[in-house]
Specification:
By secondary structure, the chain is mainly alpha-helical. The protein has nine helices and no strands.
Length: 224
């Protein structure tokens, strides 16, 4: 129980930090990351918050990931729900400042991307499954045989184009994020000596099987 609570605590710290990092890149006001362009465009089109748009798209992606054969973890579900909720709390209450000058805005964007890297260490390290967007990338990579880089770039180009057509904000920060986010996340991983390949994930179907075995064992003991 203690180990499970620690994993859950680590997961939620990661999700909250992830939301902080995303909002910092948004409030830098230099241009949004591709997925955030899509979320903002959707929020403007149908009149919802960016957090709600993130949650709605996450739900659709979880359904798609399931049909494509990707295993879901409790972290996958939590990622879908809570990053969007945390984003709305931070943005609607203006808890993270905005800047109008280029240098502080650029600094905040870079710090935000670094925080996303730290957040990834917490949430991936919890071992409770990847996020819906990462799951889509993995599923399409398996299905098509294309490289991760090709699939990720293709996905982000598509969501960027659709988001822009719906009114999402594209600027120099969009290019900076697209080019630098991978390096910033990798820098955070190296700084904290985090090896993503060593994480052993536990998925929802693992817990369902465990519960089934426990119930059978209890029923057998009761019958005796």
């Amino acid at each position: 129980m203690k180990a499970a609570l620690l994993r859950i605590g680590r997961l939620f710290i990661g999700l909250f930090l992830y939301a902080i990092g995303i909002v910092m890149t948004i409030n830098a006001n230099l241009g949004l990351a591709p997925w955030d362009v899509f979320h903002q465009g959707l929020s403007k089109t149908i009149g919802i918050t960016m957090g709600q748009a993130s949650i709605g798209i996450g739900l659709i992606l979880i359904i798609v990931d399931s049909f494509l054969g990707e295993r879901l973890g409790w972290g996958t579900i939590s990622n879908m729900i809570f990053i969007g909720l945390f984003m709305d709390v931070l943005m609607l209450n203006h808890l993270i400042p905005t800047f109008q000058h280029v240098l502080p805005s650029l600094l905040m964007m870079l710090v935000g991307m670094f925080i996303i890297g730290i957040a990834s260490i917490f949430y991936i390290g919890a071992g409770l499954g990847s996020g819906p967007r990462d799951g889509l990338m993995v599923a399409l990579t398996k299905r098509t045989g294309k490289s991760v880089r090709f699939i990720r770039n293709a996905i982000e180009i598509c969501v960027l184009a659709v988001g822009y057509l719906m009114g999402g904000f594209i600027g120099v920060g969009t290019m900076i994020t697209a080019l630098a986010i991978g390096y910033m996340v990798q820098f955070a991983f190296k700084l904290f000596k985090f090896e993503v390949g060593q994480v052993q994930h536990r998925f929802i179907d693992d817990d369902i099987r465990w519960i089934g075995k426990r119930m059978k064992k209890e029923n057998s003991s009761a019958a005796e």
